[in-house]
């Protein structure tokens, strides 16, 4: 397993947000974490990164139990890269300058400037453009490309479809499918967009009120489950 959360309880101050969350992502696996707004999906990512206090339960990277408090650099060194909600593209840097920022904790692997640009040709075309002058979809590709520059075993994406036009969400789904299929990069996808979940993920966990309440193959995400957990 690349990542395991085992009965994790997490708090913002005294606010108890995660109530015993357990989930795991194995090598090459593609997992979606779904649920309505405010159920604790981003907090789960923050627990992995040590950005929220984990008071009980275990977090393991490649089978190694992490001592508390967790720290973001430990996840990075363990090969876990995160694309946060609402990308953080540095405004004064061009596309070409933004990409290497993801390589600070670089591991050996297939991703280089050249292979990232082959995956997302728009990044090569707009290499000299300031990152924040890109469209929302292009900025999302840049954020993903930058994360890949670390050569992660696991890429965690927090609602990458947010604010994107439907045609761009389709492109994003295709890109995630390709990178998972070709390079075997595992995915943990926090999403509400069913089309993207179906394209990019194979397994799902549904969250409600800080707990995992349903899990299974994405193929079995039926209307009843979606209605209950996604409100669609
Ligand atoms: N920094 C914080 N301090 C206190 N409470 C917080 C903080 N961040 C989030 N929360 C609360 O924690 C709960 C879970 O939030 P979280 O962001 O994990 O939800 P989510 O499922 O990712 O939803 P969304 O899609 O809206 O981000 C919410 O009730 C939220 O109000």
UniProtKB/TrEMBL annotation:
The keyword ATP-binding applies. Pfam families: ABC_tran (PF00005). Keywords: Amino-acid transport, ATP-binding, Nucleotide-binding, Transport. Residues 3-232 form the ABC transporter domain. The keyword Ligase does not apply. One of its GO terms (molecular function) is branched-chain amino acid transmembrane transporter activity. GO terms for biological process: L-amino acid transport. It comes from the Bacteria. PANTHER family: ABC TRANSPORTER ATP-BINDING PROTEIN, HIGH-AFFINITY BRANCHED-CHAIN AMINO ACID TRANSPORT ATP-BINDING PROTEIN LIVF. Belongs to the ABC transporter superfamily. This is ABC transporter ATP-binding protein. It comes from Teichococcus rhizosphaerae.
